[in-house]
Amino acid sequence: MNRTPVSTYRIQFNPAFGFKEALEIVEYLSALGISDLYASPIFKARKGSSHGYDIVDPNDLNSELGSREELARLGASLKKREMGWIQDFVPNHMAVTHENRFLMDVLENGACSDYFSFFDIEWNHPYENIKGRLLVPVLDRLYGEALESGEIELRFGPNGFFIQCGGLELPLKIE
Question: What is the phi/psi pair of residue 22, to 5°?
């Protein structure tokens, strides 16, 4: 079906305003003449995300926004009123967090990762000492200062060695 949005209303989904809350305003939006909802990302984002652009799994819905059933009811309500849905997403926006199993696997396994092709990473870097490696810009000050202050720690857990940096746990690729 070809359709052109006439007037859109942007919904900023977050844990406090999910699918159920959006369903409650559909009738009102329809009465205003809104033709389409323009939805912020609804895919699984970092826990507690206020905007949804920090995705950790693009193959799953963000359960903090509601269930699949609630999303289906929202979709049915829009369809009943001949309203459309425009889904906003940015494919290269993923959170750097231990919740992102795709990225953590790439950090740990490099080119051997099952998710290697999910990312556009320059592995053949022009600087020899970082060829085949990935730099993750997460420090808020110089490396030496962060290391001396104890902000960066080597730790061991159930999944092996990792770097603890603030609230971030980064796996290590042992060579």
Answer: -65, -40
What is the domain-level CATH number for residue 34? 3.30.750.90
Q: Is residue 96 part of a domain?
A: no
Number of Cβ within a 10 Å radius of residue 40: 20
Q: Are residues 136 and 78 in the same domain?
A: no
Q: Give the Cα separation of 67 and 20 in Å (integer).
A: 9
Residues 14 and 82 both lie in one domain: yes
Task: Tell me the pTM.
Answer: 0.78
Q: Say if residues 86 and 37 touch (Cβ distance below 8 Å).
A: yes
pLDDT averaged per 10 residues in sequence order, the chain, 175 residues? 89 96 98 97 92 92 97 98 94 85 89 88 86 82 90 88 86 77
Opening angle at CA 65, ends 59 and 71, nearest 5 = 75
CA atoms within 13 A on the CB side of 88: 16
